[in-house]
Specification:
The protein is 29% helix and 26% strand. By secondary structure, the protein is α/β, with parallel strands linked by helices.
Length: 319
């Protein structure tokens, strides 16, 4: 790989080194030599132990928990590469933290997703590569090129193989109105119909009423979302399609395994048979219950990185 008269190097901070190493392996490259630690006063310490002058540098770092530490590691690494005369710096963020703070929901709210975009740009990144932003409009927060990969391109083929020959008995369900576009994209790839769960609270202190738009009776349901955080929306949707809709069984999938709070207990108590997640976020062993299956994103990100380096379009990876 030396198309531009310069090389390519993959580096990782501390959020998800396993994915970074897998990406480097798929590209036939060693992972770049660097050390990212913490001084005794809590400040981030970064040492880049090899030359990056003139190289196309890709920094792999999800800004997952601990969000602020991981974000600062990314920013300081980008600054270090810029000051070391890297030819081009791409921030590879399989999971983009603060993405849900993308608008003013009430008076005097911050728009943190925009602030993070500004910080990454000012630090010196020349472009961003990410997957399934909570709101696609966040792409407009950046003044640098952004490539936005789609998790359904990994999730849909898994279910296509899982239910091979039984596609007519399967329906894709969006757990809320906000995930309809994502669910529709999954359904198109899978070749199934789509249903939507409309949840609304009739009045204060009264539990949500779930209305199912579409017919899920006697169907195998696949609920599609961008992330599983506390799993409240997901598990409520799973119960609704069984109890209200008469579905036969429920599977679920999402791109980002945030898995916070009492999510594991909720998933265990839910009617979900399998929950398929991508490894954009490192999942602790204690949260890897039998219901959860992790699929790798390294292959898709490696293809995207190769295309970016070779100045080829990334859009073919969406199909």
């Amino acid at each position: 790989m030396n198309i531009h008269g310069k090389g390519i190097k993959i580096f990782s901070a501390n959020s998800n080194p396993k994915v970074a190493e897998e990406i480097a392996n798929r590209l036939g490259l060693p992972l770049g030599e660097s050390e990212v630690g913490t001084f005794s006063n809590g400040e981030i310490s970064v040492n880049i132990n090899e030359s990056v002058r003139g190289y196309d540098v890709f920094v792999v770092q999800s800004t997952s928990e601990p969000v602020n530490n991981n974000l600062m590691e990314l920013l300081i690494m980008i600054d270090a590469f810029k000051r070391a005369s890297a030819g081009r710096i791409t921030a590879v963020m399989p999971y983009y933290g603060y993405a849900r703070q993308d608008r003013k929901a009430k008076a005097r709210d911050a728009i943190s997703a925009k602030l993070v975009a500004d910080l990454i740009t000012v630090a010196g990144a020349n472009r961003l590569l990410t997957m399934d932003l909570h709101s696609p409009q966040i792409q407009g927060f950046f003044d640098i090129p952004l490539d936005h990969l789609q998790g359904v391109s990994i999730l849909a083929p898994y279910f296509k193989e899982r239910f091979k020959g039984c596609e007519d008995d399967v329906i894709c369900v969006s757990p809320d109105i906000g995930s309809v576009t994502r669910a529709r994209g999954f359904a198109q790839r899978f070749g199934s119909g789509i249903a939507i769960i409309d949840k609304r609270r009739q009045k204060a202190n009264v539990s949500e009423v779930m209305n199912i738009i579409g017919d899920v009776k006697d169907k195998t349901v696949i609920i599609v979302d961008d992330m599983v955080d506390t799993a409240g929306t997901l598990c409520n949707a799973a119960r609704a399609v069984i109890e209200r809709g008469g579905a036969k069984e429920v599977f679920a999938c999402a791109t980002h395994a945030v898995l916070s709070g009492a999510c594991i207990e909720r998933i265990l108590d839910s009617p979900i048979k399998e929950l398929i997640l991508l490894d954009t976020i490192r999942v602790p062993k204690e949260k890897m219950i039998d219901k959860i299956i992790l699929l790798s994103v390294s292959g898709l990100f490696a293809q995207a990185i190769e295309r970016i380096y070779e100045d080829k379009p990334v859009s073919p990876l969406f199909n």
